[in-house]
Fold each of these.
Amino acid sequence: MSALFSPLTIRGLTLRNRIVLSPMCMYSCENRDGMASSFHAAHLGARALGGCGIVMSEATAVLPNGRISLEDLGIWDDAHVGVLRPVTEAIRLGGAASAIQLAHAGRKAGTYRPWSKVRGFVPDSEGGITDRWGPSAIPFREGVPTPLEMSVEDIRVVVEAFAQAARRSDEAGFDIVELHSAHGYLLHQFLSPISNQRTDSYGGDWAGRTRIHHEVVEAVRDVWPAHKPLFVRISATDWIDGAWSLEDSVALAKSLMPLGVDVFDCSSGGSTMDAPIPSGPGYQVHLARGVREGSGMLSGAVGQITEPAQAEEIVASGSADFVFIGREMLRDPHWALKAALALEVEAPWPNQYAWSVG
Ligand SMILES: Cc1cc2nc3c(=O)[nH]c(=O)nc-3n(C[C@H](O)[C@H](O)[C@H](O)COP(=O)(O)O)c2cc1C
């Protein structure tokens, strides 16, 4: 019996195993219009054929000024729905559940893509983002653009944008929505006192800094079907004393669960370049365990999980309900199928590929 390959039902969705393609930006909307292309369908479809239980899209911007790079996927317009349908269809054909990560990059919006000859933020003169938003007018680091402090009306626009994006995600055929509140992007910027120094009701104490989360989750749940699961990716710690902590994350999980959040996907960091992050194999697993034990929420572990036995142990020991695999799945789209072979579990090899394993 493998814990990693045991099915799990959340609401109306049964997942064939606990392996998730972690959301990863592909920087591949060549026209900078957020439109999914056959690249996205081929890339995500391949990971579904490769045996994942869930295949999750990259951070998909709910507003144009919320793109991390200008080549990110978008879902801020009804015109995005039709081009996302072939993506969900490719994932479905591969036998996985399809998930979309909805995101706003806040003060970190509008960079060049990593393989561009130029680094950093795209200037206005080259079509960069002019209305870069943050909870406070504090830049991520010295030498990068200072965001505009969001008005309460801007916050209302963001909440509504997440809800509209969730509605479009349903229309495009996605099975799961994940809200991106990690890695120093907008929702995480509100959580962390490093980036949120507001003095109104969206800042200050824990209740103020988490207020937008409660509003976004309520607005999303109003339109996202009750039979479909809702995940939140969180940076479960800033790794800085006095900033966002695991205890804060546990409290947030407890308060969002009754509003209809099913899974906390536990990453970390991203609020500052100065955090002493102790990276190494499975370095964030204890965060998923802490959230799971402290709140009773289902959790996902991510970060340098590369070995089948390691992934099996994470689920079997009760540290997490899911393992999210990132870069290893870029190296090997069939990681999940090969993990099943390694763990001697009957694997969901597609009929077309079954010849290769006798
Ligand atoms: C190219 C690349 C793009 C990424 N884009 C996203 C993203 O869109 N959303 C997100 O939450 N994390 C993103 N991440 C982080 C991954 O999902 C994952 O958390 C991280 O790579 C650690 O897992 P790994 O060691 O298995 O790669 C990205 C990582 C990489 C390498």
Amino acid sequence: MPRKKLVGEEAWKNIGGMYELKDLIEHKILLPLQNRELAEKHGVIIPKTILLFGPPGTGKTIFARAIAKRLGWSLIGISSIDIRSGCYGERAKGVQQLMEDLRRKSKTVIFFDELEELVRRRTKEASDVDRQVTNEFLRQLPELRKTEDILVVCATNYVEQMDPAALRPGRFDYIMPVDLPDFDARKEVFRIRLKNMVVGDMNLEALAKETEGFTPADIVEVCNRVAQMGFEKEYFQKEEYAATTEDFIKVIRQHEPTVSEEGLAKFKEAKKEFGRAIY
Ligand SMILES: Nc1ncnc2c1ncn2[C@@H]1O[C@H](COP(=O)(O)OP(=O)(O)O)[C@@H](O)[C@H]1O
Ligand SMILES: [Mg+2]
């Protein structure tokens, strides 16, 4: 049987580290989608819906974009907050309309961001509208799953705020945590961002060591600040300037990481409770 390779390898290269998650996505999601017949021959269930969860700034959006690139498919991004505010029509009706439209797509990654807004817990205190929106989305998702050649990628920073029914088997094929970067991944995130900066000899090990607990977004923010500093130095001092390791360390030490200890503890809990990915 013919074997089709993935495309857009540079999309993976722009994501530093995260090798386990890349491997998982490649083997369990992208290759079966790209090689449907061969996968079905072996009884593999073709994945249709995945959920990425993790603290803000860990790379959920960059992964969703990279997934589309690696398949060579188009990407549609849908903000759950827009749905909630009625951009697609009256709440539950808007969800229904939108999902019907999406069923006509082909070779498309459909990215729902901030999913917790769409499937809020149906508690006693929840408003009728909230409950109706959650109901409608949960009703429509299995319908959308019947469409060929689409992949629904959902992302949330707050998986614990989602209605538990959304997390039961049958709705998502994989529920995958997106972790904080480890030492090597942090080095890679720096290396990638540094390519577009003017820097001297850099001690990436030292930078990675100083940034334990930082998200990639925190690291990007540090780099942006050093970039601005270098630009201003060269402009005002009228001589060439290359940023140093010490410049970075100074900025790192002033930066408050996004994820607090409490936030990290919550994420670890959520991983135990909701993570449903086979490594
Ligand atoms: N592993 C990574 N390597 C390099 N840059 C990354 C990585 N993960 C995230 N980024 C960058 O960090 C920022 C935040 O990532 P994003 O995907 O928006 O996070 P999230 O959607 O989880 O909040 C973006 O600028 C993104 O390009
Ligand atoms: Mg995002």
